[in-house]
Amino acid sequence: MKVADVPIAAAPSGNGPTDSGRSGIHGRMARLPFTGADSAQPAEIAMWIAAVVACLGLAVLVRAAGRGWEPLPTTFAGLPFTANRRPGVSPVSLLAPAVAAVVLIAAWRGVHTRLRWVPLLVTGYGAALGWIVALAAGNARSGPAGALAVSTFTASDGHLPELGAAETDPTALLRTFTEHAGTYSYGTRAHPPGPALLVWTLARLGITTPTALGIVLTALSAATVPLVAIAVRSLCHETAARRLVPVLVLAPWALWMAASVDGVTAAVGAAFVTLGVVGSEPGRRLWWAAACGLLFGVATLFSYAMPWLGAVVAATYFIRRRPLLNVITGGCFLVPLSLMSLWGFSWPDGLAVAREQAAQAAMQVTRVGAATLPGSVTRLPVGLAVVLVACGPMIVRAARRVRLTPGWPFLVGAVPAILFGMVTGLAAATLERSWLPFYCWLVVPALAPNPRPDGPGDIVRAGALPLGLAGLGALTAIVAQTVVEIGPSGPL
After folding, report:
1. CA distance 141 to 145
2. Domain membership of residue 338 as a residue range
3. 437 and which of 98, 269, 310, 452 could share a cystine (Cβ 3.0–4.6 Å)?
4. What sections of the sequence does the record tag as coiled-coil (predicted)?
């Protein structure tokens, strides 16, 4: 007999906040018997494997037809499928399977249904941090001690090798950031100056050693899990949020979260989305919308694709009929960008230069017979393969249940952002890292109830937690950690 996760108390009607924080007894959820079987998992796993193989096969065909069997163009450099292979197993490599086993067993036992809400968020954060560190430790050549060291800050192909220019005067970096973009590494010129300013700020706080810096960045990145859960709880109901926690914890994209400023970007993006979604609940004060806008502006300084994620907040304001919040959030969003403009950095000019640099990097085209394919087309199969691998087989269930979820606004921002990166080529060299702020929202529909409830929220039986899909996703990350070198040799 399987176990279903259902709330003891039904959610109230309307688009406002549910009483999910008080559902059950002292915030706990009930575990009731459910005799149905999740027979769709084998088919979804087969569909996922077929999709990954098809995308990789198409990428290989494009490569073979256009350039023989030579290395891929520079626009594909650094992808997990073309990284340096490092087969090997060590005792540290067993850490990731151990963490995955503990999380899966805890989810199977229904721990996510019995813990109170706040302890669940804390536990989810700790488990996510442990999963990220375990994957990084198993992949690092220098062992656990060097797993989180940010050695790529001095690498020619890594992020921010020009950080020395900001050590004494960060405004000088801002004034010349667009002008000198061509002299920077690809990892720097494909992003706004937010990552450089973050690392400079941490240095002012005394966090200067590579290991200390990596630990702080990893700890900040792991905050993505509880932040996403809070947003899903507000928009979808607590049942869906609780079931999503173990899925987010064991996500394959954790491979690239360790010591990564893109992981921090994911946390900042999740934070402003959460402020907007929770702040749109009836009864919330307007400062929530103001804080959302300010943090949205800060997040936009970390990624040129981040404005797409703002569509999540706008869609949420729309469905909850709070149009005034759009004005408040939009006005506060302009404050950080205006400050950067006063200090010498124009975000629109930075985007234009970044696109120009990406276009120059993608000048090489792939010829198939007599036809010539533009870079955006040749990047498409590789980009889709990256999304499929990063999200695991859970992405298939999410695609099949999009129409069932009240969390569809999350997809309004995440899907266009990834397509934007594919078309413009801004993320061509670091696809798997550049899209870290968007992966977490793509899997939200996977936890939607089937059939969809008549009222708002997840107020019918949710069915069995898809542990098979979550487990295979974790296995994908473990295999990649074992055979693919991720970290110092690739972009940060």
Report:
1. 10
2. 38-483
3. 269
4. none
